[in-house]
Every structure is written in C-alpha cells, then in structure tokens.
TrEMBL record:
The keyword Cell membrane does not apply. One of its GO terms (biological process) is RNA splicing. InterPro entries: BIR6-like, PPR_rpt, TPR-like_helical_dom_sf. PPR repeats lie at residues 266-300, 301-335, 373-407, 408-442, 443-477, 514-548. This is Pentatricopeptide repeat-containing protein, chloroplastic. The keyword Transport does not apply. Gene3D superfamilies: Tetratricopeptide repeat domain.
C-alpha cells in the first residue's frame, strides 16, 4: 500500500505531463490508432520509450475532447457536420473515443453516428470494451434495431459479450418490461458461450492458473498450450480471473504474456487489467500499472474510471477513489460534475466523514475552472453538521447564500440531523421555527429527520409531540415516518404501543404501511404472545394487497398455539373461503415437528371435507405400513381410533 502511495505522489510531482499525450509504439493489433493530443503551448520534441524504439512521431494538434462533444451535441447529425468534424484534428485513440461515447450516452443515435464516423472516416477499429459500452447505450426501447446490429458486428469480429455487460443489460431490459428482448439476449448469450471456442480456451487458461500458485510450473504449462494471444483473448482471461477472485494471478498473467509471448499491451488491455486490480489485496499493483501506463503515454479511459471509482466507493476504499479522481482531473478526459457529486456523497456517508478527502475533491474540481454547485455546498454542510462543527457549517451556509443558493429543506434537515446526533434536541426542534420564519416550509422529510433524531436519542414521547405538531400543520404523513415512529416504540420494548399507533394511523389517516413494517410488528407481537393483534395485522396486510406472511405464525402455533388459533390463522390467510391445500399442509407439518399429533388430528377434524380427503393431507396421516400410492380415507371413527 505504501508503495502505491509513493507512486501516486511521484505522479503528482510530474502532473505537467498529464497535459500531453505522448506518441505510442506501433501495436500489432489494429484496434489502437496512433494520433495524440498535445497542447500547442508545449514543446513538441518530447522523448519517450516509443521514440527510443524508433516509432514515428505522429502528433495531432486538436481542440479539447469536450469541445468536440459540444459541437456534436449542439448540431443535428448530417453530412455537413461530418465534413466540419473532418476539419478538426480529433485524436482518434481508444481513450478519446470512449470519452466521446460516454459523453454522448444520453443520445444513442448521435453516439452511434459518431462511432460509425470514426470507423469509416478515420479507420478506427473498436475494441470489445467499446462495443460493450455501445450495447449499454443502445439498451432502450427506441434503439433496439441498432442494439442487435451491434451484437451482430461483435460476433462477426470475434468479440464476446462479457458476463458483466450481459447481466447489466438483461437487468435493464427486465426493468423496462422488455421481456421479449431480455429472453432473446439470454438465448444469444447462451449460444455465444457454447459456440465461442476461444472462450473455452480462455476458461482453460484461467482454470489452470487458478489451481496452483504462480510459478515456473504454471508458466511451463501455459507455454505448452501454444496460445495465440490477442487483446480480446487477454481481456477474456483477465475477466474470468477477476470473477473468480484472483486479481494477483491475473496480474501475473498480464505480465507473462508480454514477457514470454512478446505480446505488446495496448491501451485496451491496460485498462482491462486496471478493472481487475482495483481491490484491496492488489492496490499496489493497481497503482504500479497506472504509473506504467503514464510512462508510455496511455491513459485511463472514462468508462474504466467510472467503473473503478464506483467499485472503490462500494468497498469503502475512499482514499484511492479520491486519488484516482485527482489523477483523472489532471488528464484531458475529465470526469463529469455528476461523478464528482457521487464521490462527494460517498465521502459524506462514511462514518465519520473524512474532511481532508472531501476538500481534496472539491479543490480539484475548482482548480479545473468550475464553481461550487448547490449539491457541493450541501455535501460540505452535511459533513460539518455530522461532525458537530456547527460554526463552520454556518459559514458554509453563508457562502452558499453569497453564491446565490438559498438554504432549503435539505440544508436545514442536515442541521437538524447534526443537532439531534449531538443530543441538542431542543435546538433541533427550534430549527423548524427558524425555517418557517425564513419562508422555507418544512416538508415531510425534514419532519422525519427531526422525529427520527428524537427516537434515536430515546425520547420517543417527545418524538410523538413533534409528530402531533406536524399534523397540526397539515403535513401529510407517509409510510417512512410511520416506520420511524414504530421503530422508536420497539426500541423501548413498547410493542403493544407500536401496534396501537399502527392501527390508529391506518384507521384515521388511511395509511398504507410498508410490507416490512407489518412483518416486523407481527413478529414482535407474536414474541409477546399477542396472537389476536398479530392476526389482525395479517388481515390488514391482505386488505392492502400484500402477500401473506405465515412463517412466524407457523412457529407460534406449533409451539404454543391452540387448534382454534390454527383455524383462525387459516381463515385469515386467504380472501377466498378457504386457503390452499399447501397452507393446511404447513400447519399440520409444524404440529408434527413439535410432536403435537393430537392437535394435528383435532385440526384435521375441523377442516372442510375437500381438505380432509385431499391426497396430500391423507398422506400426512396415513399408516406408515400402507402401500405406496394408497390413500387412507379419514372418517370420524378412524380419527378417534387412531
């Protein structure tokens, strides 16, 4: 880890190099073209490893990529626009094209037209990662024709849809109710896996690497396989090793194909290995690859950055996420304001929030010429109030006003949350009055924060007083606030009080509690042997069209319930006259499991005729010596003699 930090420090000391894109050595794979961006204000005579190798210095002077995006977004796509774009010296590199596509992802038609243009007019060859990005862009109801055309092109070029892309798009289709396309994609992906011989070989390689420690023997076996290596093949092996949790072995393979097979990595494979190494156990190797990429003029593409940054945030490696953000902001492919906001929110959600990391991100954002947005002010304010630094938070609020942003419910809610956290409940309650004086009417979310703060502080009765005050102001309550209040009651073991509040809210205000709320209160009531109240909630769940919740009732009835309890429970399960046969089966089985055979027989006697005579039920009560398939018919006499 320390080595990684030293590498990053050295990167920052040489940050001026990020203003240039150095010429690259020729690649044996045509997927990477060799045009570069170089600021006209800098000397053009720069020596790199590519220069030493005698590679030609093809340097392209160009407007910044963002300017190129602005031109495309502000014009309809046409032959005239293509002609104008041709006059610009656009750097046709993997990173630049990925950057443009990510910026155009909200306009699938223009993204597709741009990619076709760089392919047809600039001779650019897309990578598998680029095709995967285009599939995600096309994954909507209006672009399905282009989606399937792109899949066909991928197949013709020997590319594959990786599992991550497949799952992401399949989920999108399901969410958009595009069941036909989801099914078609599932079938295509299944056929592709079976038909792709290269995929099988990649699996063989990853399986070999997985089974033993990396060393001479692994390398010997790999050499004997006489692999034909392409960037597509390397990516497949890397992804398979990532999916089974071997990032360091993936790194060894990445190095081995270059060292032993003479494979020359390009920007596509470098970005691929970064996606694998962004784990805690391989973070030093991650930053070493970043340094290596920088030394030969490759950059992290925007799609790779977003995936890695989100992963760092997910596994709470926030310092690395911030350092990666700083790295990208020093490049020409800068993350968007949205990515900055997402990173800031992740920092704010940590406990406690790291103000150093927060202000590093904000500082880098401002250094790029941007001014603070309302969201950025809110995130800073949230962190300060969360830490109890209210005077500094007030200064941020004043700076926000000076910048033209008035405090709103978000701002005041954060202040209320911080005061409640510090148990300054009276001051938190007075914030409501201050808001009203300023003309900012507290909404339901602000009230919820105040009431939850009281509940978490153990002041449930004061929380109810705040709730009553809210109702006087005609603020409509919701299921979230009800859940907060009920959890407050439960935290003080006031289970029956929680039940009474729930009933009152449903009866008086026609509330529809969350399904999870019903389930929680039912479990707590049964834990205190309040069967009738729990059954009442089960009936109310049915009226609110929630599915039945029988599991805790099974446990309660089997251990301590009566036969009458079981009958009432079964009646409550269904909107019909009688519940399903399986519902009766479950109750009988729970009685048997507790050794309560007499109660099971009594319940059977009270069941309707069609249930008593059903084969599944008869099978439960049949003689263990009866022939297979023979059903024992139960009568009053047979039950009494049993």
């Amino acid at each position: 880890m320390n080595q990684g930090k030293r590498i990053l420090s050295s990167l920052r000391l040489r940050k001026s190099l990020f203003l240039t894109q150095l010429s690259r050595a020729p690649s044996p794979n045509p997927q990477v073209n060799h045009y570069f961006y170089l600021s006209p204000s800098l000397p053009t005579q720069i020596y790199t490893s590519a220069t030493i190798l005698g590679a030609p210095q093809n340097v392209s002077f160009s407007s910044k990529p963002q300017s190129f995006v602005d031109i495309i977004l502000s014009n309809d796509w046409s032959k005239h626009l293509e002609k104008d774009l041709g006059k610009l010296d656009f750097p046709v590199t993997h990173e630049a094209v990925m950057y443009l596509l990510k910026k155009l992802d909200k306009d699938p038609k223009k993204a597709g037209n741009f990619l076709k243009w760089v392919i047809n007019q600039k001779g650019f060859e897309p990578s598998s990662a680029m095709y995967s990005l285009m599939l995600r862009i096309y994954a909507n109801k209006d672009s399905m024709k282009d989606f399937w055309i792109t899949i066909k092109e991928m197949k013709e070029k020997g590319f594959f849809i990786d599992e991550e892309t497949y799952k992401s798009i399949h989920s999108i289709f399901r969410n958009l109710k595009m069941e036909t396309d989801a099914t078609a994609l599932k079938h295509f992906y299944g056929r592709m896996i079976k038909e792709n011989a290269m995929g099988d070989l990649a699996s063989d390689v990853s399986e070999l690497i997985k089974k033993q420690e990396w060393g001479f023997e692994v390398e010997r076996q790999l050499r004997e396989m006489k692999l034909s290596v392409s960037d597509n093949f390397v990516l497949r092996v890397l992804k398979e090793l990532r999916e089974i949790g071997y990032p360091l072995k993936a790194f060894n393979f990445f190095k081995w194909v270059a060292r032993s097979l003479g494979f020359q990595h390009n920007t596509v494979t470098y970005n691929g290995i970064l996606r694998v190494l962004c784990r805690e156990e391989s973070i030093e190797e991650f930053w070493s690859v970043v340094e290596e990429m920088k030394s030969i003029g490759f950059e992290i593409d925007l799609d790779t950055y977003i995936k890695i940054s989100r992963h760092f945030q997910k596994i709470r490696m926030l310092r690395d996420a911030v350092e990666l953000y700083e790295l990208m902001m020093d490049s020409q492919f800068k993350p968007s304001l949205g990515e900055c906001n997402i990173l800031l929110r992740s920092i704010a959600q940590s406990n406690p929030p790291d103000l150093d990391l927060l202000f590093r991100v904000v500082g880098k954002f401002e250094a790029a010429g941007h001014s603070r947005s309302k969201i950025i002010y809110d995130v800073i304010h949230r962190c300060l109030t969360n830490l109890g630094r209210f005077e500094e938070a007030e200064k941020i609020t004043e700076a926000m006003r000076d910048a033209g942003y008035e405090p709103d419910n978000i701002t005041y809610s954060q202040l209320i949350y911080g005061l409640c956290k510090m148990r300054r409940l009276e001051e938190a309650s007075k914030v409501i009055d201050v808001m009203e004086e300023c003309g900012c009417i507290p909404d339901i979310k602000t009230w919820t924060v105040l009431i939850q703060g009281h509940c978490l502080a153990g002041e449930v009765d004061k929380a109810l007083f705040c709730f009553a005050k809210m109702m006087e102001k005609n603020v409509d309550t919701d299921a979230d606030l009800l859940d907060v209040l009920l959890n407050g009651f439960l935290s003080q073991r006031r289970v029956f009080g929680a039940y009474q509040l729930l009933i009152e809210m449903v009866n008086r205000f026609q509330m529809r509690p969350w399904q999870a709320t019903y389930k929680l209160i039912i479990q707590k009531l049964l834990g205190e042997r309040k069967f009738e109240e729990a059954l009442d909630l089960l009936r109310r769940m049915k009226k609110h069209n929630y599915p039945p919740f029988p599991e805790p009732f099974h446990q309660y009835i089997s251990k301590s319930g009566t036969v009458e309890d079981a009958v009432e429970f079964l009646k409550a399960l269904s909107v019909k006259d009688y519940p399903s046969v399986s519902a009766y089966q479950h109750v009988f089985q729970t009685f048997f499991a507790e050794g309560r055979h007499s109660e099971a027989k009594d319940l059977l006697y009270k069941c309707p005729h069609h249930i008593r005579q059903h084969p599944a039920i008869c099978g439960l009560f049949g003689s263990p010596n009866s022939n297979s398939g023979k059903v024992k018919r139960f009568t009053r006499k047979s039950l009494s003699s049993a």
